[in-house]
Amino acid sequence: MTVRACAFDLGNTLVNDKQLQLNSLKHTAEWMKESGFLKDPEQFISTYLGFNKANLIPFLSHTFGEKIFFDLTLNELGISGIDTAILLDRYRSAVMDRIAADDDVIEAITYLRDRSVKTAILSKESTERVDAYLKKTHMEHLFDSVIVSKTIGIEKPDPKIFEEAQARLDVPFEEIVMFGDNEIADGACKQLGMIFVFVRGYKDPNWGWEKGAAFKPDHTIDYVTRASMEMLMDTLEKDTLYPDKEGLPS
Questions:
Q1: Residue 21 vs residues 24, 86, 96, 97, 100: alpha-carbon distances, Å
Q2: Owning domain of residue 119
Q3: Tens digits of per-residue pLDDT, 90-115?
Q4: Cis bond leading into 58, ω under 30°?
């Protein structure tokens, strides 16, 4: 088969969002303790994570944080005297401090583009988070299109978001490969004929808010690297697509 485009989820596919969130929360909680607003950082973190996990409001960023998560946490713990807008800004600053360009990802995307394969980000994240990531890493030029749920008002696994990606990339569905860590949200691309590659290296079973059926991946890799892209493209272009292909290098 011919691969003419690759679309990538962002969180826990190109970036370890779970670790990014946790480290940024720890930094924020320690600052609150030092400032006299908090005695137990671990209680704050666990309470915040509970509200973060339980919140199903569309188009929020569970990684970049939202004011509502901090409002609920402070109210639950009876903490007053601190503006949650300031707290959110401090948390997001901590996230931004921890975002860096990943050489493996850059080499992987560059390899694809050198082969005239179109590339896109297809993310369920908030627009603010994706924009911040691209600005910090200076990776805007590596993607032909950036499709974000909050911007277009559609979340994965809704097929319409994959239709939007296909229209922007102007490539037949069967010639597009979707990379993601979520067998429900990202795997839904298979309904339209796209190839689904499950990226398992940053997968967290507790990190997911989607409802629906999980789709079996066509291939599985650990991380997005040049080596994994080379092997995958070679396999696909030789038309040797095996379900849940194991052993691709990362």
A1: 5, 17, 11, 12, 14
A2: 5-15+101-237
A3: 999 999 999 999 999 999 999 999 99
A4: no
